[in-house]
Specification:
The structure is a homodimer. Chain A is α/β, with parallel strands linked by helices. Helix content of chain A is about 40%, strand content about 15%.
Chain lengths: ~450, ~450
């Protein structure tokens, strides 16, 4: 192998691990638009948010000026259990592709939640514990976030109630069992345990649930039960803040070897992984200290950046959450079946939306069959079975590396490998059996749901 | 946390990784008894073994004098993709237990095969490739070994035929899909593709298969097809040799911080993990340079060390393999249902059997409900969902740590965490639902199968 002064895996020492999260918003001239109260059209205050979220998390949500926020020691100790995550030089993939490009990936899948979600789950659980709460509630679709939160709550002896979309609860019993093993109570949603659940079940007796409904149930339980708050695994500013640990570690590892990336690639659903990975690089770009090509990759079945509109919208399909300004396909948009459950979100982080709007990053969309082709190619040479979500980034990283092969350019490509695919083998089976298809929304589909965007009251 | 001069995870650098495997047999005064030809009762020669196994592997199998065997560069490069594995200081578990003991575990689960099996799979695939073979055949029960071999063969572009016990093929479709994703052909056994398979199907039309039958099919295909050989994932001396990388890394990591373990604990099925973990420590013990308590942990449902007999026996239930001298419950012994599929083997590595016989190590057996109790306790504080097999070692490590709590002794305990439990969630579900039971063989059961041990012909 050429260039073997760089090890296969770069690990930071514990001393080199980040001691503070980086708040990307602090370096943005155009700040992300604030969350609005859907009734008044006014920006939500800390007071309005604190019955739902923990106090310190509300403060983090609203803080767009402080550049660095210290990571509490308890969280840093937990991080040491599964972090630093390795920055891997994909020597074998490069060789297989015959590319002069140098490919690195930051691998977040070496923990039992199987993804980067744990980085924010442990932070949110910590602040809940610190506030003296009894527990937290959340929703989960495919189950990655619910698993991460269960692990975090177990660590801090917090009660954890997860509303799991009924169809996933039934079809993904293994994810459910991991959560139960970590002591969480997992309720199929809609359920008889909440008012909103009862109402939905009365109206739609046979429903298999939706993320929007699960959010509504989780928020209801959090707000009705003293000592509980609701937590969320993506989209929010606070989540991107916690996830900055990914990018900070990546940058520290690259700096250690004097490596400067040309292209940084991440998959994008709600934006938590991408926002975390690019944070310190984007910071340099915003401050004019460096330039990078930054590429968000989304599924062609749910293309909020590439085919959505930049407007205020609800974060949930149930339309009970605050309004966020973001690239959105409309909260009534129902993405066609896609095996990357973590990317099936109609909107996008407000922070990333503003950056994209201002031209600081690119976006592209890819079809799932080509994603699984890349996933399999990657698995065979790099020895890691990637999650379908992460494989979106692999697809584009491979495409960029192949362009380098044509041009002879030795570009350095860094991508985020957010997780493993151990719980996605139904999807792999479909791919292996040649039964996977691509379903892309028509322009009419998208126009119809965008037409239903909420009218924002005059503030 | 006390004692935080030791990091949570000790990683070796690439330069510090072992460059040679350690051949434990070289330091044994009483060598493990040789494999015998069941027809003649004579030790098997290289000539007799080479139609079944690759030439270099036969040489390794028979070599009980060379202390170190160089790890070829291609294998070392592959090792760098997923090794070094971390030696983890279980600070959180220690705190939870309130023990003065210092607990370390060597975690082999951070690769897609999910266990240590890949360490030998890649070596066996390499030698097959080097010999110019087209492919290899093997059997797999629960699927860990088959997965590891698929990954290894994919890396070296070797054909890989896996005979998977039919009941597992049907009940563990996800393991099967991982193998297929790595390009292996996976055949449910018994099958119509072999003579022995056809014969068994004719005699037992509804059979769901057995490991013994799958071995027979794999050996038949290997010996009948030019360019193919058979490979095996445990029990054999060559496998223990390759797995010594676990112990060598562990020892190097401990030495780096001047740590001397008091107790070393590993689960034991065929012995590949335990033999690998303890190798360099046992070497010191054999040479009189150091002393360690070494404990093999086996399931109470399949207690070959603790309730078996030391005798020549077949390695397979089909009785077509060579005879090995080992602690055995008899090759006709059928262990009761136990969720640690990797430990459901009637015998034990000849090398470990000899060491146990000579008093160099202890053995203990544990019941699966107490194993899952330990697994859950571990998962909740250490953030890793352990494989049922590995959890046998966790159980005894916790027990030893609790003894230290009583006596106040600050013993250093090292155990092998061989893998993750992502494909064992049916078992976790049973445990979570309170439906797991313990079934321990009666003395009569064991006596009956031991009575059927083969008569060894006079050599």
């Amino acid at each position: 192998m050429a260039d073997q002064t760089i090890p296969y895996k770069i690990y930071l020492t514990e001393e080199e691990m980040p001691k503070a999260w980086y708040n990307l918003r602090s370096d943005m001239k155009n700040k992300p638009a604030p969350l609005l109260n859907p009734g008044t059209g006014k920006p939500l205050t800390a007071e309005e948010l604190s019955p739902i979220f923990c106090e310190e998390l509300v403060a983090q949500e609203l803080d767009d000026t402080t550049p660095f926020i210290e990571i509490p020691e308890e969280i840093r100790n937990f991080y040491k259990m599964y972090r630093p995550s390795p920055l891997v030089r994909a020597y074998c993939l490069e060789q297989k592709l015959g590319t002069p490009a140098k490919i690195y990936y930051k691998f977040e899948g070496n923990n039992t939640s199987g993804s980067h979600k744990l980085n924010s789950a442990i932070a949110q659980a910590y602040y809940a514990k610190k506030q003296g709460l009894k527990g937290v509630t959340t929703e989960t679709g495919a189950g990655q976030w619910g698993t991460a939160l269960s692990m975090a709550c177990s660590y801090f002896d917090l009660d954890c109630k997860v509303f799991m979309v009924k169809v996933s609860y039934e079809q993904k019993p293994f994810r459910r069992e991991v959560m139960r093993t970590y002591g969480a109570s997992v309720v199929p949603s809609p359920s008889e345990t909440t008012e909103v659940g009862k109402k939905i079940l009365a109206e739609h007796p046979g429903t298999t649930g939706s993320l929007g409904c699960a959010i509504s149930e989780a928020v209801e339980v959090a707000t009705k039960n003293p000592g509980y708050r609701y937590v969320l695994g993506s989209v929010l500013n606070q989540v991107l803040l916690h996830q900055s640990v990914i990018g900070l570690e990546t940058k520290a590892a690259l700096d250690k070897y004097g490596i400067k990336p040309d292209i940084i690639i991440g998959c994008a659903g709600g934006g938590s992984n991408l926002g975390g990975l690019i944070a310190p690089f984007m910071g340099e770009k915003l401050r004019g200290e460096a330039d990078y090509r930054i590429i968000a990759v989304e599924p062609a079945s749910c293309p909020s950046f590439t085919r959505g509109t930049y407007a205020y919208d609800f974060c949930d399909t149930g339309m009970i959450c605050p309004l966020a300004k973001m690239y959105t396909l409309g909260s009534s948009f129902i993405p066609s079946a896609n095996h990357a459950g973590g990317l099936r979100f109609h909107g996008m982080s407000s922070t990333l939306s503003q950056l994209y709007h201002d031209g600081y990053m690119e976006a592209t969309s890819v079809e799932q069959t080509s994603v699984f082709e890349a996933a399999e190619q990657f698995a065979r040479v790099e020895g890691i079975l990637p999650a379908p979500e992460s494989s979106h980034a692999i697809r584009v990283a491979i495409d960029e590396a192949l362009k380098c092969k044509e041009t002879g350019e030795e570009k350095t490509i860094v991508f985020g490998l957010t997780g493993t695919g151990y719980f996605d083998l139904v999807a792999y089976q479909k791919y292996n059996d040649g039964e996977m298809t691509d379903t892309i929304p028509t322009d009419e589909d998208i126009a119809a749901s965008i037409a239903k965007l909420p009218k924002v009251p005059e503030a």
